[in-house]
Write a structure and sequence with these properties.
The protein is mainly alpha-helical. The protein has 2 domains: 30 residues, no CATH class; 61 residues, no CATH class. Helix content is 52%, strand content 4%. The chain has 2 helices and 2 strands. It has a two-stranded antiparallel sheet with strand order 1-2. Helix 1 runs antiparallel to helix 2. The longest helix has 27 residues. The chain starts with 14 loop residues before the first strand and ends with a helix.
């Protein structure tokens, strides 16, 4: 089975079988409108870009190494994604 668009994935029980293009399905489908999924993707992209370009709170310099970039995304990007997704997901119930 080819990898589907995120909006078509099953949320709780999809896991990678070792082949990046094959997944196993055992849950009900996500009920998010495509526009919500598109907006989730856009806000995640923006948060990650911001973290990679500017760093995260507490970083004294822009990230330049792989470790620093991972730290910036972990400490700044992921919390920003969570905040933006919380409001988006609240709007769809």
């Amino acid at each position: 089975m080819a990898l589907k668009h995120f909006s078509e994935l099953k949320w709780t029980e999809w896991w990678n079988t070792g082949d990046n293009n094959r997944f196993v399905e055992e849950a009900s489908p996500l009920a998010f409108p495509k526009r919500t999924v598109r907006r989730m993707s856009e806000t995640a992209d923006q948060a990650i870009e911001k973290a990679l370009v500017h760093g995260s709170v507490g970083m004294k310099a822009k990230p330049r190494t792989e470790v620093a970039m991972v730290a910036a995304v972990t400490l700044g990007g992921i919390p920003d994604i969570a905040k933006s997704w919380q409001s988006l997901l609240r709007s769809v119930g």
